[in-house]
Amino acid sequence: MSNREKQKRLKQTMALLKIKIENLKPHVESSDRINSMYNKMLIEKAIVKNELDNLGRKKTGLFEKLFKLVRPKNKKLISDYFHS
Question: Whole-prediction pTM value?
């Protein structure tokens, strides 16, 4: 599968998850089962967004990997993906 096809598939998944999350949002407080489904979908959306972000990045060389290992700078939390 080409990068363009992967990107299209990930964007479709993001759109579907966004719709499902919006539909569940009003009912989150009423049921524990719905609340757990809502949380799982939020995590799944964060994972898909991370995959989509990583798909557009260029490949890093050995020197860059070693430098990042020694001196990491941009640490992202999973909560950073919930705002998109």
Answer: 0.66
